[in-house]
Amino acid sequence: MAINRDYLNLITPQEASSRGINLNDKIRHAIYTAVQTRSTEKNAGSGQLFRYPNKYDELAGLPDSDFISAMKYLLADRLVAQLCALEYLFESDKLEMQLFFIAKPPAPVETTGGLYREVIRYTAQEVEKWGFKRPDITSDNLYQLLKADFESEDLTEVSEGILYDIFADVKEESFLYTPAIGQLDTFKHDVLEDLSDYPDFILLENYGCCIVKDNNVLTVFNTAENFMQQRLMPIARNDPSCSRVFEQVYLEEEEHKADKNALPRTDFSLKRSKAIQKALQRKGIKQGNGMLTLLLVQKLANRAASLLQKEYKDSMDQKLKELLQDVLSEEADIEKRFLSIPQEQQEEMPDRLWAALKEHPDIVLSEWELPTGKIYTILKKDAEVFAKWIRHLEKIPRPEIWQILATKKMLEAVEQEMPHLFQDKEFVKTYGHILRKAYLRYIPWYLWLFVFLGMQPFLDKAFQIAKGKIDSQQKKLAEKNKIKWQKKTAEIQEHRIAKATLLKEIQEKNKFKDILDEFYFVHGTIPTVNLVASKLSESDSKNLVERLKKLHFILLGGSEKKEGSMIVMYPRDREWSRLRGKLFSAVEQILDRTSKKQDAEAKALASNAQVILKYLNAKSTSSLTPTRDPFEELEKLIRKEKDKNELNTK
Fold first, then answer.
1. Neighbour tally for 547: CB within 10 Å
2. What tens digit of pLDDT does each residue of 495-523 get?
């Protein structure tokens, strides 16, 4: 693309005079004055520059032929420049090119460059106005377009309302005079650069642009992503490099799903799309074969992620509302207004939801220790609700003792906020009655009679003993439950570390495999340790042989003293059976190519090719036990956790 802004270097009438340029011609002088008077940055930013065609009062009656002839001289003498802009015509709902003329601004603080920048900004604003009026892209219409592109058909009939050429009207013949070389390319480049700050404007290389508003982003992104998964990925899996990315991303995605606090992400789709795009580009494909799908996924991934994360946060608010629906409801039965959450359920809650629950101003949240584990209890922070709940417990023939004691703990936490509750004699009587039911379990048998007789000194002593036992039991259970939970979380952490280690190993292994692909199947040569090292940064190439051996890559030829000359081959993992045939073909092509050459480099390459063929032809290689595959290990870990979680939810 030729970038040219030299045509903006204009001269003043004084400079023109010193160069012998005659401005005494009345028509030229009148036109120049009309152009210069309007050459302000304010006018440039509002589309009020001298434009053609237009009839200005000071040029009234001037024939077009005289204007065109005089302007030609002004342009040639560099006193005036012609600029183009795009304007949105509301009546026709179109973007049309407008021709402006500028001169050196009359204000000394302004420049022609400043005028040009304002024209570009004005154009971008007009494109935004036009874009705002574009219809939303429907899933059905987009699917038809993606299908046509995937099948490399003509997109004209199905691209309406989706793909646009905003510069369709910007062409050389639209100018009054032939524009400067590179002027159109520069204009398009600068407008697109300005439009990069306009998120709805999506530039799709080799296709044009589309307008995707926030309310339309997820429709477009999801349609493109689904199309990629259903139509492009099954074919791309035949490419080793794509297959590796898909497998790695699958594991990363599964690990992400296992994180209760994970926000929605679109980078998994982004990685898949880039892998497929690279595979297409290696074949020289720039359009068709699904390239449009990939570009849409890539262009919209970040915006889609932001919107999905906002939806996720909104869903947390909705879940909180659902969780407390009965608790805060005036109509719900009282037994539904007492909510209990076991620790296992609480631990599965996203931290955002749990924090919102704990901080909710209208509830009382407390915890109680049971032999089976910790449990969290919730009631509305309302005296009437507590009174109803106490009466409910009193009516039940055999109430849960832990519910009575947990309610007591909750009530004690908010007693200062509801002092009038304990002024209600009826409530105090009912409350004392249910507490007695609970305390009887903890009172020594020899004090029961005194309790039933209501002898106050013995009654106080009995309740004191019961309270002490309850407190002691709660401390012991809390310690026991804590140890049990710590053991469980330690196992979870151990699994996470194991999975992270395996994932890192897979990523490194795939990086080396991609380098080998490039040497064997793209460059048609045989990679040695030194060649592999040349594709890595200095820090990454350290201890390379040791790392390759650890990852079970096959090293042939060379010696410990000449590690750099050792041939690097793929490990015998899940890909081995597929790669073995490709290696045969690639190595035989290398031998065929080098057989007629006698130089040292060709001989060395042929020698290495023979070493590989000997290894591949050995009967033992086909029956060798595959090496340890971290992918399979990680897959088993994830599957095991999935099965365990599914079992727990049944």
1. 15
2. 888 888 888 888 888 899 999 998 998 88
Residue 56 tokens, joined: 């200005």
Q: What is the pLDDT of residues 264-319, one digit of tens each?
A: 999 999 999 999 999 999 889 999 999 999 999 999 999 999 999 999 999 999 99
From 127, 261, 99, select the one nearest 200 (Cα to Cα): 127
Find, among 575, 505, 501, the residue nearest to 547 by Cα.
505
Tell me phi and psi for residue 567, to 5 degrees. Answer: -80, 135
**DSSP-H helix ranges across 283-400:** 291-323, 325-328, 334-337, 343-348, 351-358, 383-395
Lookup: tokens for 635: 């897959």
Residues 6+ apart with CB under 8 A from 390: 407, 427, 430, 431, 434
Q: Is the pTM of this model over 0.90?
A: no
Query: How many CA atoms, within 13 angstroms, populate the side-chain half-sphere of residue 290?
Result: 27
Its sign, for the CA torsion 563, 566, 572, 576, is positive
* DSSP per position, 80-135: -EEEEEEEEETTTTEEEEEEEEE-S-SSTT--HHHHHHHHHHHHHHHHHHHHHTSP
H or E element in which residue 396 lies: none
Read off the tokens for 484.
């049990």
Nearest to 622 by CA among 591, 581, 582: 581
With contact defined as beta carbons under 8 Å apart, do 297 and 387 qualify? no
C-alpha distances out from residue 628 to 240, 607, 632, 634, 647, Å: 19, 30, 8, 11, 29
Please give the backbone phi and psi of residue 342, each rounded to the nearest 5 degrees, phi first: -65, 155
Angle 171-176-179 (CA atoms, 0-180°, nearest 5)? 55
From CA 443, how far away is CA 452, in angstroms rounded? 12
Two tokens, residue 488: 């469980």
Query: Phi and psi (nearest 5°) for 209?
Result: -135, 160
Residue 497 makes CB contacts below 8 A (sequence gap 6+) with none
Q: What is the pLDDT of residues 383-425, one digit of tens each?
A: 999 999 999 999 988 889 999 999 999 999 998 888 888 888 8
What gap in Å lies between CA 184 and CA 4, rounded to an integer? Answer: 9
Name the residue with tokens 């990523």. 507
